[in-house]
Amino acid sequence: MLSNHLVFIILNVITLISLKAPLCDCSTGGISGSGSGTRTRESLDFLLPDPKDDQGLKCFQYSLYFCLMRYWTGTGRDRTVSRNSLVNYNSTKFSEMIAPYFRYMNWFSFQEEDKRNGGCCRYQTSVYIEHGLQRGMTAGEYFDKITDFTDEGKSLVYIKLRYDSECCHNVITQIGFGKGSLKIVGGKKGKDYIFPPLGREDLHVFSWKVVSRIISFDWFKDQVICKEREWVCAADGEKTASSNENRRGKRVSVIETIIPVVRSKQP
Q1: What is the span of the domain harbouring residue 111?
Q2: What does the pLDDT look like over 164-197, one tens digit per residue?
Q3: Average of pLDDT values for 45-65?
Q4: What gap in Å lies between CA 160 and CA 175, rounded to an integer?
Q5: Which of 30, 202, 216, 219 has the fewest CB atoms within 10 Å distance of its CB?
């Protein structure tokens, strides 16, 4: 019987071979124009495994569906934080908090020094320092944000594109959900959007005019995230857990509630 790791490698090879042929032809025309936004946003950002994109290729080594990138916000205190005892304390605490969970969130580091630890945790900690600590967030506050996969308050706010001349479509390489106006980076005007091949799923094609109405966070979870991480959809039934208080009065996140259950069911 093939091991899970060998099966994953075989699927990767099959997908790479299939990418040598065009994903689609240029007979499908696009619609001119694209949306953009400049207002302050709050976004949970994801990277898609796309072998034709530098970052996407790195994600492809870990997942056939998605990689978590960061929680980003334009609100809060934008300040330069020196590496003092407070920074070291919060950094160490965040590293300890995220280490048991990063795999379940597909939040992998592509840095060489983290690969020895399975993809954690210097990179994740640097993301917290840049997007959390410098915005006045404690390690616990940023942990709550980066592990919040519930739908509440999340709409499509960020898309990064690359234009594929063989396909004649804009391929979505990064996508974010949160609060604020939709910001679209890259791509070519007048062309519709597609996701790169994800797992064994059919290609999704979107008109730029309706993309924000079709791709909700709930849709993205159902069509992408939960294909690989079922706990995220299981957490939808446990949304109240994120606001419950434990015996010490500390906020308990959904991921802290769900993942121990997932682990207990594993052989």
Answers
A1: 35-230
A2: 999 899 999 999 999 999 999 999 998 999 999 9
A3: 96
A4: 6
A5: 202
The answer to pTM > 0.85 is no
Does 60 fall in a domain? yes
Number of domains in the chain: 1
CATH number of domain containing 66:
3.90.730
Q: What is the full DSSP assignment across the chain?
A: ---HHHHHHHHHHHHHHHTTS-SS-TTS---S------S--EEEEEE---TTSHHHHHHHTT-SS-EEEEEEES-S------SSHHHHHHHHHHHHHHTTTHHHHT----SHHHHTTTS-SHHHHHHHHHHTGGGT--HHHHHHHHT----TT-EEEEEEEEEETTTTEEEEEEEEEEES--EEEES-TT--EEPPP-TTPPP-EE-TTTHHHH--HHHHIIIIIHHH-HHHHHHGGGGGGGG-B-TTS-B--HHHHHHHHHHHH--
Over residues 236-254, the mean pLDDT reads 50
- What is the tens place of the pLDDT at every residue in 192-222? 999 999 987 778 888 877 888 899 999 999 9
Residue 27 tokens read as: 């007979």
The per-residue pLDDT for 117 is 84
Measured distance CA(162)–CA(116) in Å, rounded = 31
pLDDT (0 to 100) of residue 36: 44
